[in-house]
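To fix ideas, we reproduce below a protein record of this kind.
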Amino acid sequence: MASSLSVDFSYSSYSSTSRLLPFQWQKTLTLTRRRSATVRPPPRSSFACSPVAMSANTSAKIIDGKLIAKQIREEIAGEVASMKNEIGIVPGLAVILVGSRKDSQTYVRNKKKACEAVGIMSYEVNLPGDSTEEEVLKHISGFNSDPSVHGILVQLPLPRHMNEENILNSISIEKDVDGFHPLNIGRLAMQGRDPLFIPCTPKGCMELLHRYGVEIKGKRAVVIGRSNIVGMPAALLLQRENAAISMVHSYTKNPEEITRQADIVISAVGVANLVRGSWLKPGAVVIDVGINPINDAEDPRGYRLVGDVCYEEACEVASAVTPVPGGVGPMTIAMLLSNTLSSAKRIHKVE
């Protein structure tokens, strides 16, 4: 039986996407829950995922980010072990955390666990929130010159008194595993150039499309959100694979009409349930980057996490959709590990 729940779409401190991907839309609506018994995840018995056909239906394939991330971690662990055995090198990732935000501490802890699980060395610096920008830059300089460190990540957001641009720009481009250095982004934007690293979340979105056999060339793609972290690099990656790109943002007129033309939709705005089923073209493939909490009295925590896309409605229209949680989220850390391994292989000239 369907039940109704009032949903407040204002920004929340729980939402990592809303902090990183500023968007101005705020809405309130009633969300209807439905049972989706016809929705089935891909088989877990093999690494190969069946291709997604872009055809109209009412039973979406679930794009299982947890499964794909697990496969990628296993692949990375094998390569890390081979590198250690063959040349005695272990990839190393350094993470700098400034302040005591609970969510940032959780992200850093998860990254450390992920490194340990695949055999990557993890280096961590924890600085108080009132540290100076010079202290952060000093640690970055040390990691830049440390041959055992192949990737450097500064956990965002930084305290307000710090210049984020200066700090990110100080990371050696050869160790910029987050892919935020302007030279990496510039190379991504230029034809005939390749960045050393691709930002992890957009890279994870593309990896999901690839591993599920989604055809990109010649398709219409809409990216909702234009942040430097997700939206803009995601659009550039789709364009590199010869999709026809449109971007929707807070100043876009008729966003629903534009989105409905897309064969592929990537939403990264941090606004809960913004994209309704009516926004989607039948048979579209939907990648939902949003992670947003909404009040839910039935959940022991008092809230639950949802994406930017109204999931149950999308399952009735799309050919494939990522769940939240369990979709893009696990892929981001997997791509961070992948970038760190790639950095170590490049620095030590390992094929």
User: Anything to note?
Assistant: The chain has two domains: 4-63+212-330, 89-177.
